[in-house]
Amino acid sequence: MDKRRPCGRGSGRGPRVVHRKALLEALAEELPINTIRFSSRLTSIEAQSKQSSSLVTLRLEDGTQITAKVLIGCDGVKSVVARWLGLGEVVNSGRSAVRGLAVYPQGHGFKHEMQQFIDVGKRGAFLPLTDKELYWFFTCNSTFKGDVELIRREVVEMHANNFPPAYVDVICHTDPSTLTSASLMFRYPWDVLFGNLSKGTITVAGDAMHPMTPDLGQGGCSALEDAIVLSRHIGGESSAAKAIASYVKERRYRAAGLITASYLSGWILQQDGSGWWIKFIRDFIFFRLLSKKINNVVSFDCGRLPE
């Protein structure tokens, strides 16, 4: 097994972890009261053109009907909006992930840096959020089923049994309510490059546009990039349709590149290292030639919000 040094050391860059609840609350606090409608599954979309303007009618599962000038679908990997636009369905990468939050009431004692462990077909890491909490993940080529306790026991006893004791201890300290498992899905990059990412004033963002494997940790980051770029174009263009078109043009190649780089990083790092050909691909082509380019993909400045 290969234990790699903490990510981002000496570069001034690296992963950052934040509670999802804290992020959602920070975003929600910027919106007017009653802007967010909960438990409202989107069932249908109808685009209408009236003279010089376009309107979008949304119908929700509870019977509510909403009319809007612009529709931005941020409804995840199973996006109704993406399907309406005609984007190709997401595909299974053949890998699954388990994620959780470990809690040490007396303090965990780890440095605030990411520790990552790689084995044949397996990858695990943990990263402190606070002095008492750590986020951890584990990815492999298996599919996890059952309740959270069964999944945690399977990871510890069957998959991570040859990982360092510190990593296993982190898993054993997991708050069961935070443990999740899911297949790692992505959209083919050519669907993003050549597919319909918009129609008039309707478009997608985040996982609805560019679901990717988590190997570069860019899923949430790229969604925030989408928001900044989109708001900049909406604030600078003469019409909503032009703003959407400009946004799609700017994000298309960036998103396709992230999907590709994330998939390749995960695939190469988790391959069996015993074959000479995979050693050549991983050690020479990936680490010597591609890793710097991939780091440049991650270190991206999407610009500023409009004043």
Automatic annotation (TrEMBL):
<keyword id="KW-0560">Oxidoreductase</keyword>
<dbReference type="InterPro" id="IPR036188">
    <property type="entry name" value="FAD/NAD-bd_sf"/>
</dbReference>
<keyword id="KW-0503">Monooxygenase</keyword>
<dbReference type="InterPro" id="IPR044560">
    <property type="entry name" value="MOase"/>
</dbReference>
<dbReference type="Pfam" id="PF01494">
    <property type="entry name" value="FAD_binding_3"/>
</dbReference>
<dbReference type="InterPro" id="IPR002938">
    <property type="entry name" value="FAD-bd"/>
</dbReference>
<protein>
    <recommendedName>
        <fullName>FAD-binding domain-containing protein</fullName>
    </recommendedName>
</protein>
<feature type="domain" description="FAD-binding">
    <location>
        <begin position="23"/>
        <end position="260"/>
    </location>
</feature>
<dbReference type="GO" id="GO:0004497">
    <property type="term" value="F:monooxygenase activity"/>
</dbReference>
<dbReference type="GO" id="GO:0071949">
    <property type="term" value="F:FAD binding"/>
</dbReference>
<comment type="similarity">
    <text>Belongs to the 3-hydroxybenzoate 6-hydroxylase family.</text>
</comment>
